[in-house]
Amino acid sequence: MSIGCISFDINVGIMERIFLQRQSQANNKALEDFPGLNTNPDAIRWKHDRDGEFSVGRMYKRDLATQPGEIAGPWKQIWKSNTPTKIKCFTWLVCRRACLTQERLKKRGFQIVSRCFFCHEKEETNNHLFLHCRVTAQIWYLFQSIIQDPWVVPEHTADLLNCWMRRGGSKTQKKWWNLVPSCIWWSIWKERNNRCFKNITNPMQKVKENCINTLYFWCKEEGIDDVNQLVDFLGYL
């Protein structure tokens, strides 16, 4: 190699070795200065708690804490209720909008024409089926007439549980009042499946009777005695 009248003989191999050696030294220096590098064996730690211990319960609580209330749902009102275990699981699915409604099936890629099996007017979504359908709303108004307290139906099923628990009249009445949402949803879902899969359509009068009967037997099974209003209500239907 020459620059002007000056010539240089450069050994490329020597320069390459010098460069690689210095690069290796720089890398080793960076690793030595890294605070997390030590001779201890590797271990898995749960970084969200001081003791580093992982458990499914801790992960579940953290997951709930990082989600909006609408998504997480009012879990205490569900899992601490006096409903059967199967109904608790079903209520949880309703609040998470995870029931296999036509809305859910379309999200999974099924090509279907969505229509509510009750009103035949709007698409079958979780919130429409269990709250806003003009037909199924009759059951909600039926129970609201007991306490004669006007209300506005919330937008989402999870929100309904929160506002429902704040109503219900007397302390003894609340024991069965808190079971009503799960009972209504379960009755609606069974009737919906009868219409969808068995082509059996019961009149709404029958659906209301089935709902009140179901609630009555749940109360008896859990030892809730103050259910005379339900018996009287059957006579009004």
Write out key terms for the chains shown.
237 residues, mainly alpha, two-stranded antiparallel ribbon, 13 helices, 2 strands
Could you describe the 3D structure shown?
This protein has 237 residues and is mainly alpha-helical. The chain has one domain. It is built from 13 helices and 2 strands. The protein has helices at 12-33, 56-65, 69-72, 75-79, 85-95, 102-107, 126-132, 137-147, 157-164, 171-177, 180-198, 204-221, 228-236; strands at residues 2-3, 6-7. The chain has a two-stranded antiparallel ribbon. Helix 5 packs across helix 11, helix 11 packs across helix 12 (204-221) and helix 12 runs antiparallel to helix 13 (228-236). The longest helix is centred in the first third of the chain and has 22 residues, at 12-33. It is elongated and about 100 Å long. The model has no long low-confidence stretch (mean pLDDT 81).
Give the rounded overall mean pLDDT: 81
Q: What order do the helices and strands follow?
A: EEHHHHHHHHHHHHH
Count all strands and give the number.
2
DSSP summary: helix tally: 13
Number of domains: 1
Coarse shape = elongated
Class inferred from helices and paired strands: mainly alpha
**Rg over C-alpha atoms, rounded to the nearest angstrom:** 32 Å
Strand arrangement, major sheet: 1-2
State the distance separating the first and last CA atoms. Answer: 106 Å
Low-confidence parts, pLDDT < 50 over ≥5 residues?
none
State which percent range the strand residues make up.
under 5%
The residue fraction in helices comes out at 55-70%
The largest pleated sheet is described as:
2 strands, antiparallel
Domain Reverse transcriptase zinc-binding: 54-140
InterPro entries: RVT-Znf
Pfam family, one: zf-RVT
Protein name: Reverse transcriptase zinc-binding domain-containing protein
